[in-house]
Design a protein that fits this description.
With 180 residues, this protein is mainly alpha-helical. The protein contains 7 helices and 2 strands, in the order αββαααααα. The chain is globular.
Length: 180
């Protein structure tokens, strides 16, 4: 009957593997994964949701064009370092499609933080003066300045994002039903 067919096709959905014909159920794997990284995964999803809600509240949206532009930027950055985006993603077991959601959240964060993460030429000059010896022998000053600008922007984004998230968490009603 139908149940037999459903049972056959559904087998791999419930059973992840067999050891001497004894099944290892997917539920066991999920439980094990939850034990290992459940809290971290939950925190990450809470963070993403807070950013999405804040974006919606402030009418900040992220278009597919925004995401494609960010991917092109990453491409350029990695090429400048003699890498490719695809290679870097592959090393992490990811592909371009899988990072789109993460990028969407990051872009929204950047839009929400706006001016707070702007890096001026003065900032770049100061950072260059501080770290001159690191860039000794570099002939392409454009590349050096771009690297410094990106690093400073990342640092500002990281600091400002932590501040914003702390505020959002404080004002949000977050209830956790599962304890890891």
């Amino acid at each position: 009957g139908f149940l037999m067919v459903a049972g056959f096709f559904g087998k791999h959905y419930f059973v992840a593997g067999l050891v001497n014909n004894k099944p290892i159920f997917r539920v066991s794997i999920i439980k094990e994964l939850e034990k290992q990284g459940g809290q971290q995964a939950l925190d990450s999803l809470v963070t993403q949701e807070l950013i999405r809600q804040e974006g919606a509240k402030k009418n900040v949206s992220v278009s597919d064009e925004d995401v494609d532009k960010k991917i092109a930027e990453l491409d350029t950055q990695f090429k400048a370092q003699g890498q490719t985006l695809d290679k870097v993603l592959e090393q992490q077991g990811l592909n371009r499609n899988e990072i789109k959601d993460q990028l969407r959240v990051q872009i929204m964060l950047e839009k929400l933080l706006g001016d707070k993460i702007t890096v001026t030429d003065k900032d770049v000059d100061a950072a260059y003066e501080e770290q001159k010896e690191i860039f000794e022998g570099e002939t392409d000053m454009n590349k050096v300045r771009t690297t410094i600008r990106e690093t400073l922007k990342s640092q500002k984004l990281s600091t400002e994002a932590q501040t914003l998230l702390a505020e959002l968490k404080k004002n949000a009603q977050i209830r956790q039903f599962v304890t890891y």
